[in-house]
Amino acid sequence: MDYYLVIPIHNEAAYLESNLSSIIKQTLLPKKVILVNDNSYDGSETIINKYCTENPIFQKLTIVSSTDHMPGRKVINAFNKGQALLDDNFDFIGKLDADIILPENYFEVIAMHFKNNTSIGICGGFIYEKNNSGDWVLNHPMDKDHVRGAIKTYSKSCFKAIGGLKNVMGWDTVDELLARFHGYIIQTDTSLKVKHLRPTGKAYNTKAKKLQGKAMYTMRYGFTITCIASLKMAWKNQSIKSFWNNMVGFLQASKNKTDYIVTEEEGIFIRRFRWRNISQKIKA
């Protein structure tokens, strides 16, 4: 199967070489990898140029957005600009972070899943991070049928059905909700262990961490589901502050009549899906 990759890059010099090296070692190589250098000033461009010179599958795109390493808008803006350089001659497409190391068979296994089941819309492995003892341990704060934003791959038909990636915080949740809305399933594979070199959230500032509630509003969660989801997040983070940040973000978005990122019909599906999951967990 043929596939493309797009990698947004902002000051990733400490990790980028390891990342690109793991792509070159794949048992199933991509047709093309777009390396989107978004306002880097740390030496990332030197590494990008090296790989583009040494291997024709790499192509550089330089853009200038904000200097902030914000989730959502900056990353997906970079992805969308890179994706615009690609044609439609692919079976699946991937969005990768630049601070991960892939196992050598990663995309061979991903391709097998897509090939064997056309109902799969989104596929991926699991993220592992080093703990204080130096051991690689699973870091997966959501349900096991969720693919982390750092390692997303989409079948061509699913990617087109959901309209690509939304340029907002929460993009890596709404993509899976919309995939399900269109009848696709999410496939994860526990054998695919991806090393994440920078602990989750370390690059994001306080402002970024206060946008979750706004994202839940724009996905039409409604007040009650947002409250439940925020309580769950606060419990996992052991921080009541994250609950209040979420709810303030939701209420401010409601007051400002912030635009939704899903249709009313999609919103109905999303709320029903969330309530079904909540009900199942209560019964369990």
Can you give a write-up of this model?
The protein has 284 residues and is of the alpha/beta class. The protein has 2 domains: 194 residues, Alpha-Beta Complex (Spore Coat Polysaccharide Biosynthesis Protein SpsA, Chain A); 74 residues, no CATH class. It is 43% helix and 20% strand. It has 11 helices and 9 strands. Strands 1, 2, 3, 4, 5, 6, 7, 8 and 9 form a 9-stranded mixed β-sheet that branches. β6 and β7 form a beta hairpin. α8 packs across α10. This is Glycosyl transferase family 2. GO terms for molecular function: hexosyltransferase activity. Keywords: Transferase.
Largest sheet: 9 strands, mixed
Q: State the name of the first-level CATH class of the largest domain.
A: Alpha Beta
Helix content: 40-55%
Series of secondary-structure elements, N-terminal to C-terminal: EHEHEHEEHEEEHHEHHHHH
* Tally of individual helices: 11
Uncertain spans: none
Please identify which CATH superfamily of the largest domain we are dealing with.
Spore Coat Polysaccharide Biosynthesis Protein SpsA, Chain A
Beta-strand proportion: 15-25%
CATH topology of the largest domain: Spore Coat Polysaccharide Biosynthesis Protein SpsA, Chain A
Derived from helix and strand composition plus strand pairing, the structural class reads alpha/beta
**How many extended strands?**
9
Domain count: 2
Q: What overall geometry do the principal axes of the alpha carbons give?
A: globular
- Quaternary structure classification: single chain
Distance between the termini: 39 Å
Chain-averaged pLDDT? 91
Label the CATH architecture of the largest domain. Answer: Alpha-Beta Complex
Radius of gyration: 19 Å
